[in-house]
Amino acid sequence: MALTNLIAFCYLNGDHNAVPAGRFTHDSITGIGSFQYGRRYLERPNALPLDYVALPLGATPQPITINGGLYGAFRDSSPDYWGRLVLSSRMKCTPEALTEIDYLSMSNATRVGNLDFRVSLDQPEPVLAPPQFQDIADLIDASQMLEQGGAVDEEIRVLLEQGSSLGGGRPKCTVQLDDQLWLAKFPSRNDSINIPSVEYATMKLAGICGLNLPNIRLVSVGSHDVFLIQRFDRVSKNSTACWSRCGFMSSLSLAEWDERDRDKWSYTTLADKIRRYSICPDADLRELYKRVAFNIAVRNTDDHPRNHGFLLGKEGLYLSPLYDVVPSLTHSGVGTEFYLAMTVGSEGRLAHIDNLCSSASVFGLSNKEGREIADEVCNKVIEEWKTVCIESGLSTNDIQMLQPSFIR
């Protein structure tokens, strides 16, 4: 069948049961999606737009043709590559065998943001059943088995489905610890260094540089290290395992970019969008500028627009805490020139502080302020990176492999 209809639901501020918001129709032949808000939803005094840019309340939504015919916030709430690998294992097929609509309707209560998609109005609430922290050892074993293309125990696979669309294609799972929800990021069987510890150290370094972080932890489970990042799109209401949900949009969605249009990805364009849509544009612009400087300082070249996010609260949209920042490995003696995933300044994607400073005015900064902020971030990284890595338990070999990413 070419046309598929799903009911889009939204968890409004503080509510633990979603309300129907409208109907999403997708044509698999043309790759075009369309959405229509329900009248009753629009009459709600606390109604929120499902997509802050493409689906504002009160306007007639336009059909969507980019990203496979999914509105940005809809695509954000769909699983990432790892989630697709886990979900396709349920169907005993490859991730490519399932459609975008399949994934949109298969995700569960731990999907990022405050949206849900159901085939009918009377479909029950998805069950929130995240595994406990003590299940992590079994989850790591299962994730490595899935990476090899093997089958896993059904009970463990169900637990592993409690994932998220945040965090890219690495093995992970949402877990419950200390009455909070955490995204647990596991080692991969293909890792050449201790990536969970590297990510933890990099985030600690970002905190030293003054960037806005979620709560993070590094824990040891048997012979493995696991990086925990608290789910910032979930807010614990009490000690009875009850969480309210925050709306989420990636930068890809805020700027209405297609995942394939990499030439359009630009920090300066994103800055313009923040100026237009954020409820605290000055603070968000300064924070984003510092994050670009940090990406340059730590050689994080995986800074694509899905790795920058925004939360939707009662008052409106604002930049989310930092996530998914890891140095890319290089070799001593290799040229120091490298590129970020998004345009930085007048010299395109060139990862250089001079290039970033050329766009300081777009972020609401003077040339002097832009230079001072960038220099401060870079100097902090140079001074602290090795100490932070040692304190994070990285081996001498791992630190040696990371050194060319920091010292240039």
Report the uncertain regions.
none
Measured distance between first and last alpha carbons? 55 Å
Mean pLDDT: 92
CATH topology of the largest domain: Phosphatidylinositol 3-kinase Catalytic Subunit, Chain A, Domain 5
Q: What is the strand content?
A: 15-25%
Would you kindly provide a written description of the structure presented here, covering whatever features stand out?
33% of the residues lie in helices and 18% in strands. The longest helix has 25 residues, at 367-391. The radius of gyration is 21 Å and the shape is globular. It is α+β, with helices and mostly antiparallel strands. It starts with a strand and ends with a helix. It has helices at residues 39-43, 72-76, 81-90, 100-106, 136-147, 154-160, 195-208, 251-254, 267-277, 281-298, 353-357, 367-391, 396-406; strands spanning 3-10, 19-27, 32-37, 115-118, 172-177, 180-185, 216-221, 224-230, 234-238, 242-245, 247-250, 309-312, 317-319. The model has no long low-confidence stretch (mean pLDDT 92). Helix 5 (136-147) crosses helix 6 (154-160) and helix 7 (195-208) packs across helix 12. A hairpin with a 2-residue loop joins strand 7 and strand 8. It contains 13 helices and 13 strands. The chain folds into three domains: 3-118, no CATH class; 133-230, Phosphorylase Kinase, domain 1 (2-Layer Sandwich), CATH 3.30.200.120; 236-406, Orthogonal Bundle (Phosphatidylinositol 3-kinase Catalytic Subunit, Chain A, Domain 5). It has a four-stranded antiparallel sheet with strand order 3-2-1-4.
